[in-house]
Design a protein that fits this description.
- By secondary structure, the chain is mainly α.
- The protein is built from 4 helices and 3 strands, in the order βααβαβα.
- It has a single domain, classed as Rossmann fold (3-Layer(aba) Sandwich), CATH 3.40.50.1860.
- A 3-stranded mixed sheet has the order 1-2-3.
- α3 links the parallel β2 and β3.
- α1 runs antiparallel to α2 and α1 crosses α3.
- The relative contact order is 0.18.
- About 8% of the residues have low confidence.
């Protein structure tokens, strides 16, 4: 699952369904161990998603995180795994 977050996107966006299907294909590649193919497809998926001009792209499962690793760091792609890691480190430091 990949979420396209944009304050400016109102109503249904037809391309979102096909983007979800592409995300499922990336997930399937990761699960089958085809990481290089998944990374290639992930780059295409993010480029296609960016064409919708979202405010942010949120990766909704760990397989998408695995496929993206560091190729989208510091961009409009939000990886929940990175968010979770940051939260755990903060929690640990403040305990």
């Amino acid at each position: 699952m990949i979420w396209v977050f944009s304050c400016g996107l109102g109503g249904a966006v037809p391309d979102v369904d096909s983007i979800q299907q592409d995300a499922t294909r990336v997930i399937d590649d990761v699960k089958s161990g085809n990481i290089s193919r998944a990374r290639f497809k992930m780059a295409l998926l993010v480029a296609r998603t960016r064409s919708l001009k979202p405010d942010a792209i949120i990766l909704g499962c760990s397989e998408l995180s695995s496929a993206s690793r560091d190729i989208f760091k510091g961009t409009d792609v939000i990886d929940p795994v990175d968010v979770l890691v940051d939260a755990c480190i903060s929690w640990f430091r403040n305990s």
